[in-house]
Design a protein that fits this description.
Elements (H helix, E strand, L loop, with lengths): L9 H9 L18 H6 L21 H13 L4 H16 L1
Helix pairs in contact: 3-4
Amino acid sequence: MKKKRSGSSARDRRGEESVRHIPDSQIDCSDIPEAADAQLKRMRRVGRPSSGMAKQLIAIRLSPRLLNQLRQMAARQQKPYQTLIHELLEKAASHAA
């Protein structure tokens, strides 16, 4: 029985074919210089800032036609399509309440 693939992108699947897993114990880090104290003090956390109002990740199924329309609307408004979807849902929910 063939293992079901996750929903990763085609680009990710192409990358899997050319990458060979190497255990951490076999990675040679000897040519990486130690970080100086001044460098360590300047380092900052990378990623999304933590807040009490973090959005929750969900998955929904949309028809390709609808998704394409939403992406075109978002492009005209110069914003990410997921932001547009969030705004549309928020507006619809506030009107329904």
